[in-house]
Description:
- The protein is an alpha/beta fold.
- It has helices at residues 27-43, 61-65, 84-98, 109-121, 137-147, 203-208, 257-271, 279-283, 314-320, 349-366; strands at residues 14-18, 20-21, 24-25, 47-53, 70-75, 102-106, 126-130, 132-134, 165-170, 175-179, 187-191, 210-212, 245-249, 274-277, 304-308, 325-330, 343-346.
- It is globular.
- Strand 9 and strand 10 form a beta hairpin.
- Helix 3 packs across helix 4 (109-121) and helix 7 runs parallel beside helix 10.
- The strands form four sheets. Strands 7-11-6-1-4-5-12 form a seven-stranded parallel beta sheet, sandwiched between helices.
- The protein has two domains: 8-222, Rossmann fold (3-Layer(aba) Sandwich); 245-366, Rossmann fold (3-Layer(aba) Sandwich).
Amino acid sequence: xxxxxxxxxxxxxxxxxxxxxxxxxxxxxxxxxxxxxxxxxxxxxxxxxxxxxxxxxxxxxxxxxxxxxxxxxxxxxxxxxxxxxxxxxxxxxxxxxxxxxxxxxxxxxxxxxxxxxxxxxxxxxxxxxxxxxxxxxxxxxxxxxxxxxxxxxxxxxxxxxxxxxxxxxxxxxxxxxxxxxxxxxxxxxxxxxxxxxxxxxxxxxxxxxxxxxxxxxxxxxxxxxxxxxxxxxxxxxxxxxxxxxxxxxxxxxxxxxxxxxxxxxxxxxxxxxxxxxxxxxxxxxxxxxxxxxxxxxxxxxxxxxxxxxxxxxxxxxxxxxxxxxxxxxxxxxxxxxxxxxxxxxxxxxxxxxxxxxxxxxxxxxxx
Length: 367
């Protein structure tokens, strides 16, 4: 039967491309499976993990623990190492055969490479670097109420549809754009790592997972590149996504950048955390790009987030507003950062910062 990607009714189920490297699943897989579970439930369909590799069946069950109903397993010696040619061919062949309505990829190096190639071959759309996904219109309206200036009470919002609503930052994070793909299937998106919350692992769900092995053809002649060697280069990067305590600095440290960063480092050291920064701090060259918090940086969920001299532009707030506790220090009492802060301190960070360091030291010594 000829593949017809405009026959929307023929497409069903939510798929997540589950990236593995040397037989180990990536953290982004569990985030996407957890989010995919919500989308599949809203659509009333199955959630499937798409796993490619060589002898990787042993890691498939773990995906069930985070919500997958089924893993579509494609194994071959030619899939042991990632190559664009092999993975693109297998993914597209399996999609054409089984017809999922949604396919999600992590916005990792591999995801950003493979997703657009598959979308082009399947003649469908791809929304890159998404930070929010919705199916249900009512839930999407609730999201818009707190993350946009749109009036969502009009009659035009009284509708039902199965389109995936893919929201991403635009114009450097100053605007949010929501994209839909109403005429073609599958709807495809890459999702930024760290944005979606990972569900709790459930062993019963892992045990209930089913594994399907679809038929596909892959020959050495299909692969135009040879992987001669895989080398891991050690590069020390700050782990903002996994940190429980983050102290971030913004444009407010401009008066004395060195001193401002030192205060942040001292505070982070007392908390056992790391130093981050707003886009302004990174663009000014005060901190490296791996420390950027925000929609154009990393989305974080620490136990405590301290914002020193950060005004609170929308692209920064969306990247940290789900922190368990937010403490903001800013000279401007009307700064937008106070809208999401649990504790707000109006004052000069160069005075307040050292006071916070000393207060934490005293509290630790009193224990």
